[in-house]
Amino acid sequence: MRILVLNPNTTASMTASIRAIAEASASPGTEIVATEPLWGPESIEGHFEGYLSAAAVLDRLATYDEPFDALVMAGFGEPGREGRRNSSTYRSSTSPSPPPSWP
């Protein structure tokens, strides 16, 4: 299984910490791939940064070219979650379209 872990801010050191924790917690044979948006806030301190981050997260997901089986949005409040759920573009290595139960 390949899990994409997405840090909603652009701080690479935070992404590295998130990756390390995810790898330590993953089952054997699980591949963890961690990334962050290509643009957006370095830290999410309030609503303004949260809105910017949501757009940046959706942009990163739209431009991410590698297959993945699951997505973990690794940030408080999961900026971009609602937009991702409503997205008509759902990609993973196992399903090119949303599963029937997708909200």
Please provide a written account of the structure.
This is Asp/Glu/hydantoin racemase. The chain has one domain. A three-stranded parallel beta sheet has the order 2-1-3, covered by helices on one side. The chain is built from three helices and three strands; from the N terminus they run E-H-E-H-E-H. About 25% of the residues are buried. It is α/β, with parallel strands linked by helices and about 100 residues long. The C terminus is likely disordered. Strand 1, helix 1 and strand 2 form a beta-alpha-beta unit. The radius of gyration is 13 Å and the shape is globular.
Query: Runs with pLDDT <50, length 5+?
Result: 92-103
Measured as a percent range, the helix fraction is: 25-40%
Q: Number of DSSP helices?
A: 3
The largest β sheet comes out as:
3 strands, parallel
Rg computed from alpha carbons, rounded to a whole number of angstroms: 13 Å
H-E order: EHEHEH
Mean pLDDT: 81
Structural class: alpha/beta
Give the termini separation: 23 Å
What is the approximate shape? globular
* Biggest sheet strand line-up: 2-1-3
Number of domains: 1
Number of strands: 3
InterPro entries: Asp/Glu/hydantoin_racemase (IPR015942), Hydantoin_racemase-like (IPR052186), Iso_Racemase_Enz_sf (IPR053714)
Family: Belongs to the HyuE racemase family.
Pfam families: Asp_Glu_race
Region (Disordered): 74-103
